[in-house]
Amino acid sequence: MDKSEVTESNFELSVLGALAIMMFTIVAVNFFLFIVI
């Protein structure tokens, strides 16, 4: 495995992590608003 491949996989993992955090935040906010309202 080259360094470029490792960097690329790490980049993909970080992007997936960011998307997962965004989705979790949106779901949490909607859940919170649903309970409050």
From TrEMBL:
Gene Ontology annotations of biological process type: proteolysis
GO molecular function: peptidase activity
Record key words, sorted: Hydrolase, Membrane, Protease, Transmembrane, Transmembrane helix
Membrane-crossing residue ranges in chain numbering: 15-36
Top-rank taxon, per record: Bacteria
Protein name, entry field: CAAX amino terminal protease family protein
